[in-house]
Design brief:
mainly beta; 25-stranded parallel β-sheet; two-stranded antiparallel sheet; 5 helices; 37 strands; 14% helix; elongated
Length: 499
């Protein structure tokens, strides 16, 4: 019998041939059996009571189980998703956008949109942004600063949800759709792109009696930067569950873009559940208009958290402000009309909490320049003596310190009202509010001398106004923001910054 060597062992050739035939026979039987099994258990075939995973037996036939979820119980990583029972990396497309958007457009949550320049809508165009969409601006300053601009006559429909907020941020931020926050930037990373600007046709009180003007940050020869008009009910669209982060790019000497800018926006516009984090300039600045803002959270900005100008005549209801950098300016900076037109409107700012951290020396609220309206149910915490509320007074220094109309005048006369506010610091009521003059005035020294001459009577008025309007110094607040509305969807909540 011939022999064949296998791994140095000598085995009879006949034995090897027999073994191979036996193996072939076994494989044939195995494949036939498997074919019978699978053919009998496929969709619509007899099942004899047995069906593979994902099928059920009905009337002796295997049919697809409509309730079967192959991803049930499968846990994937933060950058993965379950597909047919297996974890696969999530791949998002990137869409680079620049210049004018000339037709109705929809941005979807399966892409990340990159702003490569100032992006603006053509008049009459609507930009729709799906819940969960992430928009990122590239770095750049001056003419290269990136921003999204909604001009007069155009609309934005950015309607996120608590489960799927819409996020505007920097390309340096590694946050992805489906996440509430990334980990590559902190709340102190300012000015990494521009911001979001919405402009409308509602009344404003600009300088020189102008009823329309150019928004800061947009060159005067660009008509898409105009705002203001006479339509109080103007509609610029919807912003809901929108978080704006790491903006405020420098556009000129000492001039940065706000996180969210509203210029002449009308009260048919919906602005609700808005968060602004880590902006170099103001968080939200409102130039005139009548728009109402509900549920606003602003944290860790380099200038004012909420700034109103040009006789804003709407309502900001339920706001939460936290200061966290030592160059932050004011919690609230409130101005009145700048010109002679549309100067009778009054704002209402109510149900807010303003917290200072890191021993910030700036003030909770600065009421200036004919500021007029109502502050109500606001809690202040973390400020030093005299830094909670500042009210500006002005004098005609060349004629015996005659008083000029300013915020203090309106406070005394009832056009500026502060009521039911609470101070949560170790101070007395006399320490809460201060009267001051404009340190930037050309006659600042003379202004200060005038204030000193009447300071006793002014402080008495301040004390009486504060104590008689339900304002209190307390340990435990009974007024302020309902911060629960910011749970789950905001950067502040995700990073445990809500206090």
């Amino acid at each position: 019998m011939p022999l064949r060597t296998v791994n140095d062992a000598k085995i009879p050739l006949l034995q090897i041939q027999y073994s191979m035939k036996s193996l072939q026979l076994q494989l044939v039987v195995l494949f036939i059996g498997a074919g019978i099994f699978f053919s009998s258990c496929s969709d619509g075939e007899p099942c004899d009571g047995n069906c593979p995973t994902g099928f059920i037996c009905e009337n002796d036939k295997c049919v697809v189980d409509p309730s079967y979820n192959p991803c049930a119980g499968v846990v994937c990583g933060p950058d993965e998703q379950c597909v047919n029972g297996k974890c696969e990396e999530i791949v998002f497309g990137e869409v680079v956008v620049s210049g004018e958007i000339a037709e109705n457009t929809k941005w979807t949550a399966d892409n990340i949109y990159i702003l490569a320049s100032k992006v603006y809508l053509k008049e009459g165009v609507t930009l729709t942004i799906e819940p969960g969409t992430v928009i990122k601006g590239r770095e750049g300053t001056g003419s290269l600063a990136t921003a999204l601009i909604i001009p007069r006559g155009a609309k934005i429909n950015a309607t996120g949800t608590a489960e799927k907020p819409i996020i505007f941020t920097s390309t340096l931020d590694n946050v992805r759709p489906g996440q509430k926050a990334g980990n590559s930037l902190s709340e102190y990373d300012f000015g990494k792109w521009g911001g979001l600007i919405v402009l409308g046709k509602a009344p404003i009180s600009a300088t020189n009696g102008d009823t329309e003007t150019q928004i800061e940050g947009i060159p005067g020869d660009q008509t898409y930067g105009k705002y203001g008009g006479s339509d109080a009910a103007d509609n610029s669209g919807i912003l809901k569950y929108v978080s704006i982060r790491h903006g405020g790019a420098l556009i000129g000497d000492g001039n940065e873009i706000n996180g969210l800018t509203l210029g002449g926006v009308g009260n048919s516009t919906t602005i609700e559940n808005i968060e602004i984090i880590g902006n170099l300039d103001d968080g939200l600045e409102i130039f005139g208009g009548t728009v109402n803002v509900k549920n606003l959270a602003v944290g860790f900005v380099g200038d004012d958290a909420l700034d109103v100008d040009q006789n804003y005549a709407g309502t900001v209801d339920n706001f939460y402000i936290i200061h966290g950098s030592d160059n932050t300016d004011e919690g609230l900076e409130l101005d009145g009309p700048e010109g002679t037109t549309y100067k009778d409107g009054l704002f209402t700012i109510k149900n807010g909490t303003i917290i200072a951290v890191d021993q910030i020396l700036t003030s909770g609220a600065d009421l200036k320049a004919k500021c007029q309206g109502t502050l109500e149910n606001i809690a202040f915490k973390g400020y030093k003596k005299g830094k909670h509320l500042g009210v500006r007074a002005a004098f005609t220094t060349t004629s015996g310190c005659a008083e000029k109309t300013d915020a203090f005048t309106y406070l005394r006369d009832g056009r500026l009202i502060i009521k039911n506010c609470q101070i949560l610091d170790d101070v007395t009521p006399a320490d809460v509010m201060r009267v001051y003059t404009d340190s930037g005035a050309t006659d600042a020294t003379a202004q200060k001398d005038c204030l000193n001459a009447v300071s006793a009577s002014y402080e008495t008025i301040v004390d009486n106004l504060f104590s008689n309007n339900g304002n209190k110094v307390l340990t435990n607040p009974t007024v302020g923001a309902d911060k629960t509305v910011f749970n789950a969807w905001t950067y502040l909540s995700t990073k445990n910054k809500l206090q």
